[in-house]
Amino acid sequence: PAPGLAYAVLRIPRLGVTAPVAEGTGKAAVLDKGYVGHYRHTAQPGEAGNAALAGHRNTHGEPFRHLDLLRPGDTVVVDTAAARYTYVVRRILPRTAPGDGTVLAAVPHSAVHPAYRFTAPAAYLTLTTCTPAYTSTYRLVVWGVLRSTQSR
Fold it and tell me: Which of 38, 56, 57, 109 is catalytic?
């Protein structure tokens, strides 16, 4: 997808969230427009690897305002022109350092909190936002695993 352009819709039923997904995570071009941003150089939704998305928790539409309310077993859906991808939340890392970049790895894990890790290749979805609310001190990370794909 072209940088800054919406190409998918993220749905989080438990939270009542429906938000457009755009390529990139730049504030001015993507996040500050209320979009959820796709981290470049991570897998696209439905692909093997880790499709990683970022969103504001406060301000600019705050699509991830209540991300901390997700629980293992909840579903997260990504709709694209090609298919609907349904992920099941498997792990939640309530707080890590902003520089904990391994949470975006193809097989995601936390370099800061080693107990939070996956060990096998799969189709993962990672959602990241700032925490606690109204700060950017840490990052909250939610990981899901692809459960189903529905072609359009």
Answer: 56
